[in-house]
Amino acid sequence: MNLKLGVDVAGAHNLLPKDGQGSSSAFVELYFDGQKYRTTVKEKDLDPVWNESFYFNISDPSILSNLTLDAFVYNNVKDTHSRSFLGKVSITGTSFVPYSDAVVLHYPLEKRGIFSRVRGELGLKVYITDDPSIKTSDPVVNTKSVHEPVKNSEKRHTFHHLPHETQTQAPANTGVPPAPPPAMRYGYEQIKPNPPPQPPKLVRMYSESSSQPVDYALKETSPYLGGGRVVGGRVIRTDKASSTYDLVEKMHFLFVRVVKARDLPSMDITGSLDPYVEVKIGNYKGVTRHIEKNQNPMWNVVFAFSRERMQASVLEVVVKDKDLVKDDFVGFVRFDLNEVPLRVPPDSPLAPQWYRLEDKKGDRIKSELMLAVWIGTQADEAFPDAWHSDAATPVDSSGAASTLIRSKVYQAPRLWYVRVNVVEAQDLVPTDKSRFPDTYVKAHIGNQVMKTKTVQARSLNPLWNEDLLFVAAEPFEDHLILTVEDRVGPGKDEILGRVIIPLAMVEKRADDRIIHSRWFNLEKPVAVDVDQLKKDKFSMRIHLRICLDGGYHVLDESTHYSSDLRPTAKQLWKPTIGVLELGILNAVGLHPMKTRDGRGTSDTYCVAKYGHKWVRTRTIVDNLCPKYNEQYTWEVFDTATVLTVGVFDNSQLGDKGSNSKDLRIGKVRIRISTLEAGRVYTHSYPLLVLNPNGVKKMGEVHLAIRFSCTNFVNMLYTYTRPLLPKMHYVRPFSVMQLDMLRHQAVLIVAARLGRAEPPLRKEVVEYMSDVDSHLWSMRRSKANFFRLMTIFVPLFAVSKWFGDICMWRNPITTVLVHVLFIMLVCFPELILPTVFLYMFLIGIWNFRYRPRYPPHMNTKISQAEGVHPDELDEEFDTFPTSRNPDLVRMRYDRLRSVAGRIQTVVGDIATQGERMQSLLSWRDPRATAIFVTFCLVAAVVLYVTPFQAIAALIGVYMMRHPRFRHRLPSVPVNFFRRLPARTDSML
């Protein structure tokens, strides 16, 4: 086997001008294993494109990992027949991959020496091949390029399959050309011919200390969306018309609205018929429900057929009569797709018309069918409720009545904390009059049950004064039920009295004002029979203080990934600061989740969650590379929130029906504070899932995201506000209470969304809300430990540097440090201005290297790459554990619970350190801008103010009287808590 190293030189970007006229004439020289090749010269071009391929012989494959590929970029100087250095790239043999895994990567150009000056990037695709048909390249100058493999690679890896907004394609597996675009117009728009193809923006490499395999990293793309082509986060408009759906690729659909029919002929012996309508185009078919014994039926159903999948130019709408053996033909209407009008919102919907039906011979009959046929896009009002051809298999017509495949927007219920303060009870009447009861109060709302402590008082008037907390959702369907029970013996309790309180009658509050207590009469139920309870009133009563606390934010998701921080009470909501727009474009390379007809496939849909609004795309059936192209919008109230997007496989469409769980394919989390306002982020996110066999890439999802700021002042003001509402600091909950309440809140949200149509199932809600993020995991504990150690790396480096200074390893540096130290000792007022000015300069310097892409899950910092199988078995073990014996199970569960708390504490410490690092890293561009501005102002103020006055002021402020202290956190603390950490990148 003769292995070869293939190198495709794609192009370079932003090269340094060297010819004295603001340009360069660049070429590339490649060196590998004693072989040398050279590209052609691109005259006067700082962004040259070569697209040339070269092949090196690999003399000894066993030493391949020790070899290096060097690529030097030079400027050709014609006058002197010389060359000047523009940069170089070195790639070690350990990075070489097979051709099937190779992609074009843009490497930053490196310096040749310390005094070299370079800039720009070089795009290379490096791979190993054993194709015998490939000949070794000409060792002089290769002016030929192997076009076909490069094109195929771009199609597979560089999102070249995203066409222009008006481009139509045939299905990839049929080879049939697309149907011609319609020539007629409706409104002011006409489908235009395909534009000439342009090279998409390829994968870009970013240098980070936490680098992971390229296959797990983000890929930046430059797709054509509704607003134009996206290049570097900016939209380059291709036409003057604006589009509501400007973050997705514009897809055209053939809409067919079947309204009703009249004067249908009688087909049965009874003199009537059971009509239904069948809409067919090519091998796609949609069927309405049949209406029994009705000659003037009404359906009002809309069908949507994806134009890029159409393989026919004629639309047939057939009316049939439902029969037990064979359905009878009634009549049909035909439409030529070239004559179908194009509708452009906000034009009014196309009015339905009456069409005379034709029989099989083509003769018109008396019956008529009311239809409306037009071509539209996702912006059409009929799109959400339509039956979609790409959401059903071509041979399955029963999907027309299914709502499990449609896109929907869900509104999560508004959650309240219910605080029940059980004060005391009076005049209890126990069954056994010879003893004083051991009483406790049991309270439950729906499935939530809580108990007070048991009071063993020698009295019939027990006193508890204990708070019980619950979660309730509007509208309040469950009642608060309290029972006073007597513990007669071990495992035997007796109800002494009960009271039922409707939550709708409970007082609401938005602050910490005192709620007046009330006495409630207790009723003792006496069983008469199985179906009826007779209630006898006694003089027993209970003293309660009940309220609905609206001043808290009810946590229904992990605190690290909260998508909403507002309190329940709407009167406490602040104005919006911006708008978040999400375009769910497509998914590629999905892993098959099921088998159908002997082949692997998936029926996928996406779910996005932010605030109270959940969205679900339509289910694309039987497709491993689905195109959704659906756009959604949210109001943003706080930048310290996270958008979560998940991809799932719909398991409700097969024979198993609703008994199967929807399988998770992966999810993406994006923190709003890491997004620049107005920038369009178009990235392909790898879908990473951790299972008992290790981390696995399930495919990639392509998203377009834009955050638009509507009130810049309010947005900056939020950085000074507390992260959570005021009540969380005035009357805080314990960690145990928050965990319990969060668990109940997730169950309530899952139950409410599971009752929608189509239902958002419990497993989907739990996966999107990270319900298991607080459980013990050895992998997470190690990841948090290494995150913590990474924080101390700069301290270790400073300590080592200071040790070198003390040891005089570099005499010049040591002398300069001594001079600086003596100067600061003599002039102590320069210490703080120097520190703040130094941080200001670092922040300004780091602005050049600020992240240009949103953070994503990182397998390296999550310790998911080389995790031990035994640790994975422990992580995916049930809770409680299924291990025997019982004693080991009890101790094991206790250890996991305690270790989970320790894990959280370690993670919180690491989070604080990472927030400190993010002050100057421009991860949150607004926060860093605020801080560097503060540093500049502080440097000036501290310079003009005597140091003694500043020190005295700080000391007096730190030791100020409690009277002058506020229970809410200070402005610096609020600002610090809003800074982003690397929790967003944790799996």
Describe this structure in words.
This protein is of the alpha+beta class and 987 residues long. Helices cover 19% and strands 32% of the residues. The strands form ten sheets. Strands 1, 4, 7, 8, 9 and 10 form a six-stranded mixed sheet that branches. A five-stranded antiparallel sheet has the order 11-42-43-34-39, with no helix packed on it. A five-stranded mixed sheet has the order 21-22-15-18-23, with no helix packed on it. The relative contact order is 0.07. Mean pLDDT is 81; it is low at 140-209, 394-401 and 527-537. One of its GO terms (cellular component) is membrane. This is C2 domain-containing protein. Keywords: Calcium, Membrane, Repeat, Transmembrane, Transmembrane helix. The chain crosses the membrane at residues 785-803, 815-845, 929-957. May function as a signaling molecule by regulating the trafficking of other regulators.
Short descriptors:
13 helices, C2_dom, C2_domain_sf, 987 residues, 19% helix, C2 domain-containing protein, membrane, alpha+beta
